[in-house]
Amino acid sequence: MDSDGSPRTLDPEQDPAALKALTHPLRLRLLGLLRQHGPATASELAVRTGESSASTSYHLRVLAKYAFVAEAEHRDGRERRWQAVHAVTSWSNEGMLATAGGRAVLGTFWRRSIEHLQHSVVQHEADIEDGRLGEEWHEPSGVSDLMPRLTPESLTELWDAFEAKVTELTARDEHDPRAERVVLVTAGLALAASAPTAPESAADTPPTADPRSDTDPRSDTEPDRGTRSGGTRSDVTSEAGPRFEGTT
């Protein structure tokens, strides 16, 4: 990744046009590809995304207009190459939630993160099936859905600890040849207590409560709720979209 390691922080009041530019799904994907794989031409990105080179070229110019990408060193003089300017794009959730436009943009980014997770699960399974990932990756890989009860202060502390640890381990493993790209799509979303809606039919009846938890009903086929957890606050990751690091 040739982008600047520092984050770019966007303000919904000062940068509304830049934020709106990022809501286009192809622009998110192009930015993620450049962050993940390094500089590329519009034609190379067209092959990766299945889009026309005219389309990728147009959207790259829009990203350049708002300083998300810039021209990279060219291999020759025939076609311009692009690179990401920053490794991470972030913002204040509080600032985003203060306006209707900001709330819409934030919701778009969060949903793109979910799409990125779905894409990554499919790719992870294929990489294991085809032998591109060794057995040493089987145990540490996974998805969790922990639901602890925390105060706002504790959730903030958890984010800070998580992000600090990711930074520490990334620096430690930077030159280790065994290191692979790891997708961390994380969430920490508070849910207000409310009365459950009564099922309308037998098909809607929730499963019997799992004896492992007195609060979270789960089917017998679901895995233990206790493998890995975490969350990203306000940055969007890699190819399919947001933490604009390599996701958003």
Q: What can you tell me about this protein's structure?
A:
- The chain is mainly alpha-helical.
- Helices cover 40% and strands 9% of the residues.
- The chain contains seven helices and five strands; from the N terminus they run βααβααβββααα.
- The chain has helices at 16-22, 25-37, 42-49, 53-65, 93-97, 100-129, 152-173; strands spanning 4-10, 40-41, 69-71, 81-84, 86-91.
- The protein has a three-stranded antiparallel beta sheet. A two-stranded parallel ribbon has the order 1-5.
- Helix 3 (42-49) crosses helix 4 (53-65).
- The radius of gyration is 20 Å and the shape is globular.
> Over the alpha carbons, how many angstroms does the gyration radius reach?
20 Å
Main β sheet profile? 3 strands, antiparallel
Q: Strand share of the residues?
A: 5-15%
Provide mean pLDDT, rounded: 78
Question: How many helices does DSSP assign?
Answer: 7
- Rounded to the nearest angstrom, the distance between the terminal CA atoms is 14 Å
Order of secondary-structure elements = EHHEHHEEEHHH
The share of residues in helices is 25-40%
Categorize the overall geometry.
globular
User: Unreliable runs, pLDDT <50, ≥5 residues?
Assistant: 200-248
Topology diagram in text:
Elements lengths: L3 E7 L5 H7 L2 H13 L2 E2 H8 L3 H13 L3 E3 L9 E4 L1 E6 L1 H5 L2 H30 L22 H22 L75
Parallel strand pairs: 1-5
Antiparallel strand pairs: 2-4, 3-4
Key attributes of the depicted protein:
mainly alpha; single chain; two-stranded parallel ribbon; 7 helices; about 250 residues
